[in-house]
Amino acid sequence: MTTATTDGLITYYADLLERLDRFAAMVLPPNDGDEAELARASDGSLLLDLEARLPVGRHSADVELDLFERWAPAARDTFERSEYRFELRHRGLDYRRAYHRHDVDHFVRAFDVATHEHCETPIGIAACGHYAGAPVANAIEAFDSLYDLWLTGAPPECGSLRCLG
Amino acid sequence: MARLYHTPKEVAEILGISDDAVLDLVNRGDLPGLRISPRITRIPIVAFDRWREGYRPKRRRVVVRPARRELEPGEGEALPSPAALSSR
User: Fold this and answer.
1) Is B47 close to A22, i.e. CB distance below 8 A?
2) Would residue B51 count as lying in a domain?
3) Number of domains, chain B
4) Which of A57, A85, A96, B47 could form a disulfide linkage to B32, CB 3.0–4.6 angstroms apart?
């Protein structure tokens, strides 16, 4: 999903929150109550900005999940996803995995790609600044992918990724 | 580290149903499970345990509100306080 109406985004966000809940991810404030919010930025963009912990349980503080999307206005009540940042930081196993799309013009000029990924084992030590990565279709797909990485119980194999620079 | 997920076969044994019935529950979105590939499905133990206890996710209401903050200072930086701005 790369374009959506306001109502479409509201439904999409509710679907995402329901999936996190179903998979026992603990959503953090301000979106942890009965009501969650899409923020409208001053430029008219709608921001999906969600923090969670995986999973609810003894070690939930160790595993941080951030899901962020910027939906820029494209036409009357139509928004286009212009930016995303999906991240998992596993403090216990000391790794970070992320899928990013931002500063597209810069990345297209520098690497001929619109999206990139990050992979750090341990956190803060990157063998490569930016890795190649296929675009992530939506936040639900990102959640599934990062959640599955957490489920494996092992750090990612960053060496298997293609380094952009 | 202990494994964090069940296979469909393990869940089938726990529930006393067939593997296919487990996959049907996953495909319908009832039982929390990730279809990694056509041959691999993982069922997170923590989510499965909650599901067995009868937990079902609630549907949250989503509202659109003005952004609380858009400018985030970097590490070591700080925004001026409203009082300091109004005294200028």
Assistant:
1) yes
2) yes
3) 1
4) B47
Domain enclosing residue B5, as ranges: 1-56
Backbone angles phi, psi at B76, to 5 degrees: 85, -5
Tens of pLDDT, residues A37-72: 999 999 999 999 999 999 855 655 689 999 999 999
- Is the CB of residue B69 less than 8 Å away from at least one CB of chain A? no
Q: Is A91 on the interface with B (CB under 8 A)?
A: no
Which residue's structure tokens are 């067939």? Answer: B18
- A47 at the B interface (CB within 8 A)? yes
CA distance A164 to chain B (A): 26
| DSSP codes, A46-86 | EEEEEEEESSSSTTGGGEEEEEEEEEEEEETTEEEEEEEEE
Q: Whole-model pTM?
A: 0.89
Looking only at the bridges linking them, the beta strands covering B5-6 and A131-132 are: unpaired
Q: Which among B50, B57, B65 has the least Cβ separation from residue A18?
A: B57
